[in-house]
Amino acid sequence: MRVVFLNPCGSLGGAETSLLEILSSLRAASPQWRVQLVLGEDGPFAAEARARGVSVIVEPFPQTLGRLGDSRKHRLATMKNLLLAAGPAFWYRRRLARLLRALHPDVIQTNGFKMHLLGAWSRPASTPLIWHIHDYVSTRRLMSRLLRLVRKACSLAIVNSRSVAADVQTVLPNLKIVPIYNAVDTQRFSPTGATLDLDALAGLPPASGEIVRVGLVGTFARWKGHQVFLEALAQLRVEENIRGYVIGGPIYQTNDSQWSLEELRQQASMLGLQGRVGFTGFQGDIPSAMRSLDIVVHASTEPEPFGMVIIEAMACGKALVASRDGGAAELFIDGQTALGHIPGDASDLAMQIRRMATNAELRANLGVAGRASVEKHFDGRRLASQLLAVFHRVSPAGAIGLSDRAMESWSVRS
Ligand code: GLC
């Protein structure tokens, strides 16, 4: 079986981390398969995929196409940018079609909306196309329309949660949709291993006495809840000995949808958090960063389609407070494997952080239960078996008659 994956960007966001696990687990489960990755941009993602033995081809996007975001707020600007990108996209599509003919895959799988469209326009007519949809579609009116236009080119859509499945179903009612949860590398993300000196990285003085370290780990996308996290920290009293850390940086090319470091620093100082919160910048070694925290916070203010950070923190055996909405809410059992909070509600978040910060036993218990849940539900072997079933189903090259049951996603609660 020859599989080609298409991904628009070269930085390591959630969809790319998800794809890295797919690549690793496929290589482990079916080493004889030829797996190739085509990227619209060079960057750390290419290096990580190559390190996993995957052959990577960078077919760079023209600038106007790379910068094109699908902003829900600035529809007019998006339309204008779309028009500007239309010509370059047309030429890119021809280059991609030529490349795909040469690679001659049995299956093409696309990540990211731009590649869902480009894949549909450039795939060889007889090659099945799988969309791996990582985000809600119905809130993006323009993208919903475009996807509907090319929907016939797509054999099946994999989605990252039941919540996203329900959403995609409303936009593309006749498309076969298979929810498959992401996986995490449970060896790298494990409770034991190296740690980091977060204070030094953030330029904070060494802590005097016992403190509880609480961190938000993630990209600077505005809906990831940095503001709510900072407001929650400000509601906790100084004598509670809690130090906050913002771990991550602005990694996307499109600027209107992400915070800058300066903006977040300003918010922290306006909230009077000097010395109580540190910004470490982008960290390549997330497992070590997580192990250096006592509590990991996931604070997305909009329904989170999945939330890689949730399964990563649980895999590290960390106490976790997570937003209780969207696909994210499917990944943990509130009170057993993590604590949930109301998305966007700083007071509720502060309350859950305090509950954990003042109870080391609760943190330890949640950490152990979280790790056990990840080992059971979010490891690479489960991911590979579900994916293989999907590939065999869509591709004549692997038509070995697997039943729909093998593709089924199951619930963390089952
Ligand atoms: C997208 C989603 C995020 C998910 C990731 C991997 O980035 O927004 O929720 O964790 O894809 O599926």
Helix content: 40-55%
Question: Which strand-content bin applies to the residues?
Answer: 5-15%
Q: Quickly give the CATH architecture of the largest domain.
A: 3-Layer(aba) Sandwich
Strand order of the largest sheet: 3-2-1-4-5-6-7
* Count of all domains: 2
The major beta sheet can be summarized as:
7 strands, parallel
Bound molecules: alpha-D-glucopyranose
CATH class label of the largest domain: Alpha Beta
Shape: globular
| Rounded average pLDDT | 92
Q: From the helix content, strand content and strand pairing, which structural class follows? A: alpha/beta
Low-confidence stretches: 399-407
Radius of gyration based on Cα positions: 21 Å
Order of helices and strands: EHEHEHHEHEHEHEHEHEHEHEHEEHHH
Extended strand count = 13
Instruction: Note the total helix count.
Output: 15
What distance lies between the first and last C-alpha atoms, to the nearest angstrom? 32 Å
What is the CATH homology-level superfamily of the largest domain? Glycogen Phosphorylase B
The CATH topology of the largest domain comes to: Rossmann fold
